[in-house]
Amino acid sequence: MKDNKIIGSKIQHMRESKGLSIEEMAERSGLSVEQIERIEGNVDFPSLAPLIKIARVLGVRLGTFLDDQSQLGPVVCRKGDLTGDGIGFTNNNTEGRKHMGYYSMAEDKSGRHMEPFLIEVAPSAPGEAFTPSTHEGEEFIYVLQGSVEILYGKNSYQLSEGDSIYYDSIVSHHVHAAGNEPARILGVIYTPY
Q1: Tally of structural domains, the chain
Q2: How far, in Å, CA of 178 to CA of 193, rounded?
């Protein structure tokens, strides 16, 4: 499993290899210079939306930051393979606490178009404000344990164990644990590149 330091370094290396300055990356991605510096400097790991914007500027898939792409055939992910800390995502801002831990279920699969994750969703802090995300692509979520709330556009969906949702990611959305208990979900993310 990759850690945030490897991902930040990989993004920096890819940006530099393409001859892009941080300022050029910020302008092309719509992100701030500070946000890119924090990502590359391993200060924080953002939500998916900024990573997708960075991937587009660099001309790579989202999964390029997360894997080694070594397997051409099928990749089997055993229950015991999903250990360690995973990758923590914040609530889409530089002050955000890490509220989701992502465990890639196909990090070695080369040329894939979907990103399957086992996701641990921490309970929200009392009064926590949610910062929605928007990006191209589609997402599928299946609740394995606990319950989650998905804010999607102007609607809210409560999902419990065994429920699922499939939606277009271009619509403003946010996924968080419902109530005070953590949740565990299977998330499959598709982003065209």
Answers
A1: 2
A2: 32
Query: Using one digit for the tens of pLDDT, what is the confidence trace for 19-61?
Result: 899 999 999 999 999 999 988 887 776 677 788 889 889 888 7
Please tell me whether residues 99 and 185 are part of one structural domain: yes
Determine, yes or no, domain membership for 71.
no
Asked if 112 and 180 sit in the same domain, the reply is: yes
CATH number at residue 53: 1.10.260.40
Task: Give buried/exposed letters for 77-111 (b at 16+ CB in 10 A, else e).
Answer: beeeeeeeebbbbbbbeeebebbbbbbbbbbebee
Q: How far apart are CA 58 and CA 40, in angstroms?
A: 14
pLDDT tens digits for range 65-111: 765 555 556 777 777 776 555 555 444 444 444 577 777 787 776 67
Amino acid at 116: P
Q: 157-186, pLDDT tens digit by residue?
A: 999 999 999 999 999 999 999 988 999 999
Which residues span the domain enclosing 24?
Answer: 4-65
